[in-house]
Structures are given as structure tokens and as C-alpha cells.
Amino acid sequence: MKESIMLEQDIKKVLITEEEIRAKSKELGQILTEEYADKNPILIGVLKGSVPFLAELIKHIDTHIELEFMIVSSYHGGTESTGQVNIIKDVDSDVTGRDLIFIEDIIDTGRTLKDLRELFLKRNPASIKIVTLVDKPAGRVVEIEADYTGFVVPNEFLIGFGLDYDENYRNLPYIGVLKEEVYNN
Ligand code: IMP
Ligand code: MG
């Protein structure tokens, strides 16, 4: 059993505030509204980390969209991307000829999104774009960039707003850094 404590006690510093996330999501939502007007895109959320960002972002998209979710796990032993992800839950709809927008919490090594993009390209969509709340470019080991990025962050382990440490802290309304002692417990 976890001790019943307030999450804030474990936070060393807040890197991105709730207000900053909301403002950035609004800005990105407005861009997507213009870019995808009349295109009826499918937003694909990669579970579980993308959920808070996706929920905030779609409030600011003022055109028709559809939602899909995926659960994936990567099985990368070496340094090369295999172009294959282990799909635990796939999208339910046919993506042929559709405009797809992947929504991610964070791009670190880039493997997850590189593999997902390669997989979905084989399904002949009209287009694929990537939106990520956070980008950690220093962590990259394969070549992939988001089309839209909320925040570029330093190479630190972050938690909150979908980002987890051992499945915890996803529900924090901001993005922050954990105190060292939390890892050592
Ligand atoms: P990658 O780009 O394939 O390395 O995978 C990105 C995934 O790694 C994200 O969806 C997160 O689940 C996880 N991840 C990477 N960096 C962090 C972090 O700083 N905090 C929490 N999860 C992270
Ligand atoms: Mg994750």
C-alpha cells in the first residue's frame, strides 16, 4: 500500500505550470483547427501518457475530428529501430486515405513514434503528423521530429500531466521533477 500523502511533497521543482500547458494547448489547438478544417482527421492518442494532453488539446480544436487510442510496447534490444512495435491495442477504424495526427506526451529516444509512423505508413493514410506536449531532443537515438511541439525540455526525468514514474504522478496538473529521495525509496 502506498502512503496516503499529497503528491506535491515529492516534487523538487515545477518545470511547466498548469497555466502554461493550457495556453500552449490552446495555441496548438487553434493551429490544428486551421490546418485540418474540413479534413476530419483522426487523432490517435498513445495510451496512457497522452490522455491529459489530448483532453486539453481537443477542447481547442474547433472542427470535426475523430478519436482513436493505441497501446503499444516497444521491444528494442539494440540501438536500431526495428520498424515494429508490439501492438497491445490497435485503432478500431480503417485509416486508409485518412489524415492522422499522433498525440504523444513526450518524445525521448524517438523509437515509439518512429516505429508507429512506419507501421501506419503501410496502411496508406492521406497524411501523418505528430503532436507532442514535450520534446527531449537530447534523448534522441533515432531520427524523428514532431510536427508540433509544446515544450522543449532538458534531459531530466519528468513527471506529471500524463508522464509517470512507475505508473504514478500522471494526474499532477503540471510537469515537474521528482525529489531524488523518491527514486531511492
Ligand atoms: P521514446 O521516445 O520511444 O523513448 O518513448 C517515449 C516514451 O518514454 C514516453 O511515452 C514515456 O512513456 C517515456 N518517457 C520518456 N521520457 C520520460 C520522462 O522524462 N518521464 C516519464 N516518461 C518518459
Ligand atoms: Mg509512457
From TrEMBL:
Catalytic activity field: IMP + diphosphate = hypoxanthine + 5-phospho-alpha-D-ribose 1-diphosphate; GMP + diphosphate = guanine + 5-phospho-alpha-D-ribose 1-diphosphate
CDD domains (alphabetical): PRTases_typeI (cd06223)
Cofactor: Mg(2+)
SUPFAM superfamilies, A to Z: PRTase-like
The organism's place on the tree of life at top rank: Bacteria
Pathway involvement of the protein, from the record: Purine metabolism; IMP biosynthesis via salvage pathway; IMP from hypoxanthine: step 1/1; Purine metabolism; GMP biosynthesis via salvage pathway; GMP from guanine: step 1/1
All residue ranges annotated as the Phosphoribosyltransferase domain in the record: 22-165
The enzyme's E.C. designation: 2.4.2.8
Any one GO molecular function term: nucleotide binding
Biological processes annotated in GO: GMP salvage; guanine salvage; hypoxanthine metabolic process; IMP salvage; purine ribonucleoside salvage
Annotated keywords: Cytoplasm, Glycosyltransferase, Magnesium, Metal-binding, Nucleotide-binding, Purine salvage, Transferase
Places the protein is found: Cytoplasm
GO cellular component: cytosol
Family: Belongs to the purine/pyrimidine phosphoribosyltransferase family.
PANTHER family (alphabetical): HYPOXANTHINE PHOSPHORIBOSYLTRANSFERASE, HYPOXANTHINE-GUANINE PHOSPHORIBOSYLTRANSFERASE
Function of the molecule: Purine salvage pathway enzyme that catalyzes the transfer of the ribosyl-5-phosphate group from 5-phospho-alpha-D-ribose 1-diphosphate (PRPP) to the N9 position of the 6-oxopurines hypoxanthine and guanine to form the corresponding ribonucleotides IMP (inosine 5'-monophosphate) and GMP (guanosine 5'-monophosphate), with the release of PPi.
Name of the molecule in the record: Hypoxanthine phosphoribosyltransferase
Organism whose genome encodes this protein: Streptococcus merionis
Gene name of this polypeptide: hpt
